[in-house]
Design a protein that fits this description.
The structure holds four protein chains of four kinds. Chain A is α/β, with parallel strands linked by helices. Chain A is 38% helix and 19% strand. Chain A has one domain: Rossmann fold, CATH 3.40.50. Chain B is α+β, with helices and mostly antiparallel strands. In chain B, 31% of the residues lie in helices and 23% in strands. Chain B is built from eleven helices and 14 strands. An eight-stranded mixed β-sheet of chain B has the order 3-2-6-7-8-9-1-10. Chain B has a four-stranded antiparallel β-sheet with strand order 5-4-12-11, with no helix packed on it. Chain B has a two-stranded antiparallel ribbon with strand order 13-14. Chain B starts with a strand and ends with a helix. Chain C is of the alpha/beta class. Chain C folds into two domains: 90 residues, Elongation Factor Tu (Ef-tu), domain 3 (Beta Barrel); 122 residues, Rossmann fold, CATH 3.40.50. In chain C, 20% of the residues lie in helices and 30% in strands. Chain C is built from six helices and 15 strands. In chain C, strands 10-9-8-7-11-12-15 form a seven-stranded mixed β-sheet, sandwiched between helices. A six-stranded antiparallel β-sheet of chain C has the order 4-3-6-1-2-5, covered by helices on one side. Chain C has a two-stranded antiparallel sheet with strand order 13-14. In chain C, helix 4 runs parallel beside helix 5. Chain C is globular. By secondary structure, chain D is of the alpha/beta class. Chain D folds into three domains: 137 residues, no CATH class; 33 residues; 146 residues, no CATH class. Chain D is 34% helix and 14% strand. In chain D, the strands form two sheets. In chain D, strands 2-1-3-4-8 form a five-stranded mixed β-sheet, sandwiched between helices. Chain D has a three-stranded antiparallel β-sheet with strand order 5-6-7, with no helix packed on it. The radius of gyration of chain D is 21 Å and the shape is globular. The N and C termini of chain D lie far apart (51 Å). The chains are: A alpha/beta, B alpha+beta, C alpha/beta, D alpha/beta. The interface between B and C is large, with 53 and 44 residues.
Chain lengths: 145, 340, 274, 325
C-alpha cells in the first residue's frame, strides 16, 4: 500500500498472551510510540505459531512477520518457547534458502515488563522492513488490491 | 505441398510471432516443455513434452468469475477478457487427437465458453514423429504418427519443413508466411512416412489390442476381479491425470482474497480421495474404486458416450511418469484377457 | 457468449422452518421474478461465494410462476451457512440442471404412487404439486411419506391443508417410532408400502435415504411391480452441473446431466457405485 | 541376487511363515517395475524382479498392509531400512508382523538419465560388467552404470542396513563423505537473488500432483493438512507462486527431523524438481545447529524438532551466520 509514494510496511506481530502481549499493552500504557502498521495477533504461546501462520501472514499482505514470546526459561507452559525457537530457526533458514529476504522475519523475546523493548523492537523492525520495501517474493497476487 | 528450408526455420517462427503468440517445445535440463517463442529460442525435436498441449486450451487453473459480498448482497463480476490469437507449433499426432476428445466434452451443449474461446483463437501446427519411443501406443487408437491432424500438419524431412494446411485457420497461417515458403513435391515426405511406419512396426505397444473394450462391456469390466491387484501399488497421486492430454475433470473452488471472492477452476484427479467426497459420505471410498474410475472412464465410459472413440491417445506420458509404473497399458493387457 | 458456470443473483424472500433441520427457502431474482423456468425433478446450483456451491432439488412446482423454493437439510458447510441466513440475503443460482421426471409422457394418465422418506420428499414435492395442478391429466395419486418423527415431516402443513384435501389424492403418513400426539401409522416406509399393498398398474416414484430406496424397491417387487414402473432420483457430488467436471458419474451416466431421475431398471445396467 | 531373493521368498510363503511378500513386479519394459504384494508362490516365481531399476521404497506400503494383519515379509534396501525404523518409531507399523529381509544395493539406475542422453525406443537393458547395454529399436548403446545412476544413489549416505531379520547379500557401511550436502552448500553460497531465481525456476514447474507427498514414507498422516478444505490452501493446484512456495516449504517442514533422506520425492516427481534439496537443507541445518542426527537410525531417539536444549541458538543465527545477503 503506497501513500504519497512513501512505503509503509504492514507488519504482523504474533505475541504470546503471557509476556509479549502484556509487554505490548505496557508499551501502550506508557505511551511508547511504535507504528500503527504493526498488527498484533495474540496467541496463547509462541509455540502455538505454526510455520503456516507465518507464511499465511505474508500471503495476506504482510511485509514482515515478527514472533514475540516469553524469554527462554519464562514460558508459562514451561517449554513452549524452546520449541518455538527451534521451529522458527528452521523456518527462517528455509525462507532464506529460497531466497526470501531474511530480514523480513524475526523472533524477539519480550517480557510483560518490557514495554519499552517492545516499542523499540517494533520501531527497529519497521525501519528494517521499510528499507527492504514491499514483500514481492512471498506475495499472493490475488490478495493485492 | 509447401516447404521451408530448416535453415530458415527461425525466420518462419519470427514471422508467426510477429503477429501472434507462438508456443513451441523447447529443451530444458529435464526434457522439453512448451515455451513462448522469442528470438534465440530453439525448437526442440524431442519426441514429446513433459506436460501435454492441453494446457493451452484447458489450463491447470483459471478464474471463472469474481464476487463481492457485502452484508446481504452479492455482486457477480464477469472477469472474462478477449482471448488473443496464438499458435502452438510442434504438437505431436497423439496430442493433436486429444483436442478432438476434449472437444467432445467441452464443446457439447452447454458449451464451455472458456475452452471454446481458446479453441477459436488457437491454431495448432503439428509435426509428424520421426523417432517414436517404446512408450508410444498411438497406433492402438488408430492414430497415424506420420500424418498428424491439426490446423497445419508438418513434416521435417531431409533439410526442410514441409507444410500442409487442413483447415481455414491453417490456410490463414500459411498465407501469413507465404513469402518464406516454396512449393515442393512430396517425395521426401512420402519416403519418410514409409520409413517411420517401418520403425513403428518394431515398437512393442503399437498394436495393443483394444477389442476387449468394445461393445457393451461396462459391467463385465467394472466387476472384474483384477482391479484390486492392479491398483494395489497406486499411490493415489495425480501424476497420470495431470500429464494426460485427455484428462479433463475439474474442480471449482472459491478463494477469499480479503477484498472479494475469486471462483476458479482447476484440474482435478479422480485418483484423489476427495474427488467424490460429500457432506454425508463418499461414493468412491477406496483407491481401488478411484483407480477403476480413471481407466473405466477412458476405456469404457467415454467410448460408450462418444461413438466408440477411446479417451486415450497413447502418448505414453503416464507410462514414463507414474511413480510406480502402473499404467493404462498394463490395465488394458490385464483386463483384455478377461473372459469372465 | 453465456457461460454455464457463471451464476445469477437470487434473493431469499421467505424462510420457512419445516423441521428442526430442514428449512425451505423461497428464491427470486433481485427484480422479483423467477430466475428461470424448470421442469419437475430438475435441480439448481445454489451458492454463497466463499462458502461453497451445491446442487439442490427445486421443490416448488413449475406451475408456480412467482418464485422457486428449495427445501434444504442442514448437513454440511454450505447448508449450515444457508440455515443461518436471514430473509433478504442474496445467493447465487444457476440452472436448471438434470432431466426431469417424465410428467408429460410416461406419467400421463397413470395412477401414481409417490414414496418418500425424510428430506426425500423435497424432489418429489414439485412433481406432486405439478400433478395436482393438472389433476385431470393423471389417474389416482397415492403418497406414502414417512419420517423419523412427527417433527421431521417436511411440508406437514401443506400435506394436511392442501394435498389431503385434493380429490383423488390419498396421503399415507408414517413415523418410525410411537410419539405422543401422533395417532397415525407407526413403522418404516418399506413395510408400510407392503402393508398398504398397492395395485401393480401404478407408476411408482421413490426418493429417500439409499437404504429406504433399496428396501422399498424390493417391497414393490414383492407386490408385483416391475422395475420399469419405478422411478427414483439420485444425488452424488457435483461441481459443474453440466456433465463436464467428471465426478458425479455412475458408469457412463452423469447424474447431473443424464440424471438425477433414473428408472430403476436403468440402474441395473450401471455399476453399483452410488 | 534376484534368484536368491525369489527362492527365499517362495520358501517363506510355502512354509507359511508369512502369508505375503512385498517386493517388485516386472513391468512392461526392461526398466520399470511396480511394487507388489505377492501371496502366491507361482506368481512370485514368475514375476518377481530385483534389478538395477527396483527403486521404489517399499516401507510405506507396510502402513496399509499392517492394518490388514497377518505376517508379511518385505525386502528392504539399506536406505529403505531407515524409513522402516522411522515408521516404527512413529507407531505406523507393527514390527511383530513384519519379517525384514535386508538386501544388498549397489545403487539404482534412473531411466530418465538414460533417456536424456537421447536414447529412445528402449526394448532391452543388459548389464555387462560396470556398463549397461541398452538395446533400442534404433540400435544398441553402451554406457557406464554410474553415468545413469540416480542422484540419490550417487550421494548414498549409507549402505548399512539399520534393521533386518535376515540379510541377502552384504551389508555395507555408513558413508559420512557422501557429499550429499554439496549442492545445498552450493546454493547457500549463492546470493539470495540467485537462490530465489533458482527455486522459482524449479518450483514453478510443479503441477501439484502430490506424488512427492503420497510416496513419502514420512507422510503418513491420516489426513494431510493440504487435504483439509478448511485450511484455505489449494490441494491440487498452485494458483500463484505463493502457493507453490508454500506447498513445498510446508511439505518439507512437516517431515523435517523425520525425513531419512531416502530420496523418493525427487524420484517420483514427474517434473523432475530436486525436492531432496529442500529436505537436505533441513537435515543440514539441524545437524549443524542441534548436533548430528540421522532419522531412522534407531527407533527411540527424539528428533531435533521435538526436542530442545536450554542453550539453543536464537533464530537470529539465520541473519548472523555466513552466506551472502
Amino acid at each position: 500500500m503506497q501513500v504519497n509514494n512513501e512505503f509503509k510496511p504492514t507488519i504482523v506481530a504474533f505475541c504470546c498472551n503471557w509476556c509479549s502481549y502484556a509487554g505490548a499493552d505496557l508499551a501502550g500504557t506508557n505511551r511508547a510510540a511504535y507504528p500503527a502498521d504493526v498488527k498484533i495477533i495474540r496467541v496463547p504461546c509462541s509455540c502455538r505459531v505454526n510455520p503456516m501462520f507465518i507464511l499465511r501472514a505474508f500471503q495476506r499482505g504482510a511485509d514482515g512477520v515478527i514472533l514475540c514470546g516469553c524469554h527462554p526459561g519464562d514460558c508459562h507452559y514451561t517449554s513452549g518457547n524452546y520449541y518455538a525457537r527451534r521451529r522458527m530457526t528452521m523456518l527462517f533458514s528455509m525462507l532464506d534458502y529460497l531466497g526470501i529476504e531474511r530480514e523480513r522475519t524475526r523472533v524477539e523475546w519480550v517480557s510483560a515488563a518490557e514495554g519499552a523493548k517492545f516499542a523499540a523492537t517494533m520501531n527497529e523492525f519497521v525501519a528494517t522492513v521499510t528499507k527492504l520495501g514491499e514483500n514481492k517474493r512471498l506475495e499472493d497476487l490475488r490478495c493485492k488490491n | 505441398m509447401k516447404k521451408i528450408a530448416l535453415s530458415k526455420l527461425n525466420d518462419f517462427f519470427a514471422a508467426i510471432a510477429a503477429e501472434e503468440k507462438l508456443y513451441l517445445p523447447v529443451d530444458g535440463e529435464k526434457g522439453a516443455d512448451y515455451k513462448l517463442w522469442e528470438e534465440g529460442v530453439t525448437y526442440s525435436r524431442a519426441l514429446n513434452t513433459n506436460r501435454s498441449a492441453k494446457d493451452f486450451f484447458f489450463p491447470q487453473t483459471e478464474n471463472i468469475v469474481d464476487f463481492k459480498r457485502e452484508g446481504k448482497t452479492i455482486e457477480v463480476i464477469d472477469t472474462r477478457t478477449e482471448t488473443e490469437d496464438f499458435v502452438v507449433f510442434g504438437v505431436r499426432a497423439c496430442d493433436a487427437r486429444s483436442f478432438t476428445i476434449l472437444d467432445k466434452v467441452f464443446l457439447v451443449d452447454p458449451v464451455d465458453s472458456f475452452y471454446a474461446a481458446r479453441r477459436a483463437h488457437g491454431t495448432i501446427v503439428t509435426v509428424a514423429c520421426t523417432r517414436p519411443g517404446e512408450t508410444c501406443f498411438c497406433g492402438a487408437f488408430g492414430i497415424d504418427m506420420t500424418a498428424p491432424e491439426g490446423d497445419v500438419s508438418t513434416w521435417i524431412a531431409e533439410d526442410a519443413l514441409w507444410l500442409t494446411a487442413n483447415t481455414q485457420k491453417g490456410e490463414a497461417l500459411l498465407a501469413k508466411v507465404a513469402s518464406l515458403t516454396e512449393e515442393g513435391d512430396t517425395s521426401a515426405v512420402d519416403a519418410q512416412k514409409e520409413a517411420v511406419k517401418e520403425i513403428a512396426k518394431k515398437l512393442p505397444l503399437q498394436n495393443l489390442p483394444t477389442e476387449a473394450f468394445k461393445g457393451n462391456v461396462l459391467l463385465e469390466k467394472f466387476n472384474s476381479a483384477k482391479w484390486p491387484e492392479l491398483s494395489k501399488a497406486c499411490l493415489g497421486c495425480g501424476t497420470c491425470t495431470f500429464v494426460c492430454p485427455t484428462c479433463q475433470c475439474y474442480d471449482i473452488f472459491d478463494f477469499d482474497t480479503g477484498h472479494g471472492i475469486k471462483r476458479a477452476r482447476c484440474w482435478d484427479s479422480c485418483m484423489y480421495s476427495d474427488f467424490t467426497k460429500m457432506a454425508h459420505g463418499n461414493s468412491r471410498n477406496s483407491q481401488v474404486e478411484r483407480f477403476r474410475q480413471r481407466f473405466m472412464h477412458k476405456l469404457v465410459y467415454f467410448p460408450m458416450n462418444n461413438g466408440g472413440e477411446f479417451g486415450c491417445v497413447g502418448c505414453g506420458r503416464c507410462l514414463s511418469k507414474c511413480p510406480i509404473n502402473m499404467n493404462i497399458v498394463k490395465v488394458m493387457k490385464s483386463l483384455g484377457g478377461d473372459a469372465e | 457468449m453465456t457461460e454455464c458456470l457463471i451464476p445469477v443473483i437470487g434473493v431469499v424472500t421467505d424462510i420457512r422452518i419445516d423441521t428442526p433441520d430442514v428449512k425451505t427457502f423461497r428464491v427470486v431474482t433481485p427484480d422479483g421474478k423467477k430466475a428461470f423456468e424448470h421442469k419437475p425433478g430438475q435441480c439448481a446450483m445454489l451458492s454463497i461465494p466463499g462458502v461453497g456451491e451445491a446442487m439442490f432439488s427445486i421443490t416448488s412446482s413449475p406451475t408456480n410462476t412467482e418464485f422457486m423454493e428449495f427445501s434444504i437439510k442442514k448437513c454440511g458447510c454450505l447448508t449450515t451457512w444457508l440455515h443461518a441466513m436471514e430473509v433478504g440475503q442474496q445467493v447465487t443460482i444457476r440452472g436448471p440442471y438434470g432431466n426431469p421426471f417424465p410428467v408429460d409422457t410416461t406419467f400421463k394418465g397413470k395412477d401414481l404412487l409417490f414414496i418418500a422418506g425424510g428430506i426425500g420428499l423435497a424432489p418429489l414435492r414439485s412433481v406432486i404439486n405439478y400433478v395436482r395442478h393438472y389433476r385431470d391429466q393423471y389417474g389416482k395419486v397415492d403418497i406414502v411419506y414417512g419420517s423419523r418423527s412427527m417433527d421431521d415431516l417436511v411440508d406437514y402443513k401443506e400435506i394436511i391443508d392442501e394435498w389431503m384435501t385434493t380429490e383423488g389424492v390419498n396421503v399415507h403418513l408414517t413415523i418410525d417410532r410411537e410419539q405422543e400426539g401422533w395417532d397415525g401409522h407407526v413403522g418404516f416406509v418399506p413395510n408400510y408400502v407392503k402393508e398398504l399393498g398397492f395395485d401393480v398398474n401404478k407408476t411408482a416414484i421413490i426418493c429417500g435415504p439409499p437404504i429406504m430406496i433399496k428396501f422399498t424397491l424390493a417391497g414393490l417387487q414383492e407386490l408385483g411391480f416391475n422395475k420399469t414402473q419405478v422411478f427414483t432420483t439420485m444425488e452424488l457430488r457435483m461441481k459443474c452441473g453440466v456433465g463436464k467436471c467428471g465426478r458425479c458419474n455412475i458408469g457412463n451416466k452423469y447424474v447431473c446431466k443424464d440424471g438425477p431421475v433414473f428408472r430403476c431398471d436403468q440402474l441395473d445396467e450401471l455399476p453399483n457405485e452410488y | 541376487m534376484q534368484e536368491l531373493m525369489k527362492k527365499r521368498a517362495v520358501e517363506l510363503l510355502s512354509t507359511g511363515n508369512v502369508d505375503r511378500v512385498i517386493g517388485w513386479k516386472r513391468g512392461e519394459f526392461a526398466y520399470d517395475c511396480t511394487p507388489a504384494v505377492f501371496t502366491d508362490a507361482k506368481d512370485l516365481w514368475e514375476n518377481f524382479v530385483y534389478d538395477d531399476f527396483s527403486a521404489p521404497n517399499l516401507s510405506k506400503y507396510l502402513v496399509a498392509e499392517c492394518k490388514k494383519g497377518g505376517k508379511m515379509a518385505v525386502f528392504l534396501k539399506p536406505c529403505d531400512t531407515y524409513s522402516f525404523n522411522q515408521l516404527q518409531k512413529e507407531h505406523r507399523i507393527k514390527r511383530e508382523l513384519i519379517y525384514v529381509i535386508g538386501i544388498e544395493c549397489n545403487g539404482k539406475a534412473d531411466v530418465d538419465k538414460i533417456k536424456v542422453k537421447g536414447v529412445d525406443g528402449i526394448i532391452g537393458i543388459a548389464t555387462e560388467g560396470a556398463n549397461f547395454v541398452v538395446e533400442t529399436i534404433y540400435g544398441n548403446e553402451t554406457m557406464p552404470k554410474y553415468e545413469v545412476m540416480a542422484e540419490r544413489c550417487l550421494t548414498c549416505k549409507s549402505k548399512k542396513h539399520m534393521v533386518y531379520d535376515e540379510l541377502i547379500g552384504e551389508t555395507g557401511d555408513v558413508n559420512p563423505d557422501s557429499g550429499r550436502f554439496d549442492m545445498v552448500a552450493k546454493l547457500e553460497a549463492m546470493t539470495p537473488d540467485e537462490r530465489f531465481a533458482f527455486w522459482r525456476g524449479e518450483l514453478s514447474r510443479c503441477i501439484r500432483c502430490n506424488a512427492c507427498r503420497n510416496v513419502c514414507p514420512a507422510c503418513t498422516c491420516e489426513q494431510c493438512v493440504f487435504d483439509n478444505p478448511n485450511s484455505g490452501i489449494q490441494q491440487k493446484v498452485a494458483v500463484t507462486s505463493f502457493e507453490e512456495n508454500m506447498f513445498h516449504i510446508i511439505r518439507a517442514y512437516h517431515v523435517a527431523g523425520r525425513c531419512t533422506d531416502c530420496g523418493e520425492c525427487s524420484r517420483v516427481c514427474p517434473q523432475s524438481i530436486p525436492l531432496h534439496l529442500l529436505n537436505r537443507k533441513f537435515i543440514k541445518d539441524m545437524n549443524e545447529l542441534y548436533g548430528e542426527y540421522q532419522a531412522g537410525e534407531d527407533t527411540t531417539s527424539r528428533a531435533p524438532l521435538t526436542n530442545y536444549t536450554l542453550d539453543d541458538c536464537e533464530p537470529s543465527i539465520v541473519h548472523e551466520r555466513g552466506g551472502k545477503a
